[in-house]
Description:
The chain is α/β, with parallel strands linked by helices. It has helices at residues 3-10, 27-31, 34-39, 46-74, 94-108, 121-132, 162-171, 183-197, 211-226, 245-262, and strands at 16-18, 21-23, 80-84, 112-115, 136-141, 155-159, 175-178, 206-209, 239-242.
Amino acid sequence: MTTGDTDDAMMPDEGCYVGPMRIRRSADQLAMTTDRRLLDASQRTSEARAQRAQKDPWRVLRIQSEFVSGFDALRDLGEAVTVFGSARTQRGTDTYELGVGVGEALGRAGFAVMTGGGPGAMEAANKGAFQAGVPSIGLGIELPFEQRLNEWVDIGLNFRYFFARKTMFVKYAQAFVCLPGGFGTLDELFEALTLVQTTKITRFPIVLVGSDFWSGLMNWIREVLVAEKMVGAADVDLLQLVDTPEEVVEAIARTRRELDEQAPR
């Protein structure tokens, strides 16, 4: 074995974020995130139930602290747009460059840009915002694998709990923009749709970027959900499908004009 091999073998792992802290953990410890400890019901022993009864009420304080930290960090934020998209998007691809363009166009239009703070499409949007000279915000999450806040984030927070993080995405945004993405992006998209549809939040633009990627989903909503009367035909209009950064900005501006016209005088 060479000296280089020995050095590599002895290199420590990179660690992970647990809320705001960065620590080293074993693979088993990495898998047991704070969210999982809160939600996992697989441990059904009497001992596990007794531990939950003892610990769960105190978890409320930790949950409360995440809301306080988020509200405090973002309280002075002006108008912002939340951008979702895949962490797997590779640098140099068309989708990555589209994300950079979206972030930059939103910045030039006067919006701060808020993402999940990770790599891929999130990094691209943060990069565009940074280049436009507007606040570039990243809201990270504790995961069972390493995901650092990307280098283009100006204001970064790391959350233990998905629901606290999601509240920040909604509370401080004037629009949602979805670049191509996977389950996480779909989760955020449909949660936003549900909040708007049920009037839990004032209707605001939800923009899908990339006709080739999103048109199949749009067709399924129309041809299955609407046809089966699972959603109303008007609900489809909550989504806007565009292809360019300029169209993203125009879709947001158009919806805001419509809402202003509908507002009571």
